[in-house]
Specification:
Elements lengths: L4 H4 L12 E5 L6 H13 L4 E7 H10 L4 E5 L12 H8 L4 E4 L7 H13 L4 E3 L2 H7 L3 H5 L5 E3 L3 H8 L3 H6 L1 H12 L2 E4 L5 E3 L4 E3 L12 H13 L5 H23 L6 H6 L1 H13 L1
Parallel strand pairs: 1-2, 1-4, 2-3, 4-5, 5-6, 6-7
Antiparallel strand pairs: 7-8, 8-9
Helix pairs in contact: 2-3, 2-11, 5-6, 6-8, 11-12, 12-14
Amino acid sequence: MRLPVRLRKRNPDTHKGDYGFVFVLGGSPGMTGAVCLCARAALRAGAGMVQAGVPAAVHSIIEQKLTEEMSVPLPDEGKGYLKSSSLKEVSAYLSRANVLALGCGASRIPAVQSALRTVIRQSTLPLVIDADGLNAIASRMDVLSRRKSREIVLTPHFGEFSRLTGTGTAEIKKRRKSLAKEFALKYNLTLVLKGHKTIVTDGKRLFENATGNPGMATAGVGDVLTGILAGILAQGVDLFQSACTAVYLHGLAGDYAAKEKTEQAVIASDLIDFLPSALKHMRSRRRK
């Protein structure tokens, strides 16, 4: 695979605003790492600016973990969970953003799930939805048909896709390509079905990834993919191409990490650290 044109080279006369603003919405007690991994990956993938919107009670933790990425505390009634009351403030920040990534570490409690569904319905931004954002959709599939955003990508693993479709994981493994295409076409979106040889489809086109390794079966790796995808999308790359490129880079970074650290020792943040190596590899292929 080759890098999209927009990612190949930056003009000398440029500024951070030229490369997009990603807003990451999520986080809850005990799950602050998911948001941080997503935000860091988005910035490392080339987004000009990244801001994490998190419940106020966990904001101080996020502030200690993030350096280049910005963060903002959202009203949470002191409990550390996103609430419907958070959404008015969220909308003000989203007015500046180019891409919204949501769901990472957000929690499955009903109030949070309701708040996430409201954001998914109302936002007009390109959306990258993972983790608890997918759980919010699974309990109310009509959210997808009622959404305002034209550009949306879901990134489920087999278990999450099972909840979205009502199909058992064994059946999904047998028919993953056809089921993924049917789902993407039905809901007019791009689907990233994660796993061995991850699939990307918009219902018409289908890309099967060849990078990655078993060492990536570790907590937080999906949050990193969400961030990479959002960061590429924010730079103006087509949605389907963004998803394909993100999946390939994500797996390739995992391969570099496994080569140096062994598959057993790979952790999610290693993929962020090796993302520059993956980008260099894709650039070198472009020149050949």
